[in-house]
Amino acid sequence: MKKKKKAKKPAPPAPASSSDDNDGDADYEEGGERAEPQGGAVRRCTHCQIEKTPQWRAGPLGPKTLCNACGVRYKSGRLFPEYRPAASPTFVPSIHSNSHKKVVEMRQKAVRSGDPSCDLLQFIRRRD
């Protein structure tokens, strides 16, 4: 027997606000377009260099420095140099992945092959 889906109710209209009510956290302009940061500079994720994201998140360099994907991984402690969202302009399939499992495999393979970029990781593991 099939379940019937409930019809979604339309969202109530948002109350009109004046520009005086703006607290600086608004990332959207009228019409839902992304607002550029003050000064006219294009905002980029400090990890993957992507410019468009549904939400900017806090990273090691401060608030609103990481895209949504990188920010979620950073907060959970899984943001590694090998990780890149597939939409990132810096994504190179031979050295990056957007899958945590593949990133871990890549890091283990680099450790086994004696890649010097993993010396820091080994130092951190020994220290703990």
Characterization of this structure:
The chain is extended and about 60 Å long. It is α+β, with helices and mostly antiparallel strands. The model is unreliable at 17-35 (pLDDT under 50). It has a two-stranded antiparallel sheet with strand order 1-2. It has one domain. 24% of the residues lie in helices and 6% in strands. The termini are far apart.
Walk across the major sheet and give the strand order.
Answer: 1-2
How much helix, percentage-wise, in residues?
Answer: 10-25%
Number of helices: 3
Mean pLDDT: 75
Q: Estimate nothing, just give the exact number of structural domains.
A: 1
Give the overall silhouette. extended
Say how many strands there are: 2
Please identify the structural class as seen in this structure. Answer: alpha+beta
Largest sheet data:
2 strands, antiparallel
Distance between the termini: 55 Å
Order of helices and strands: EEHHH
**Strand-residue fraction?**
5-15%
- The radius of gyration is 20 Å
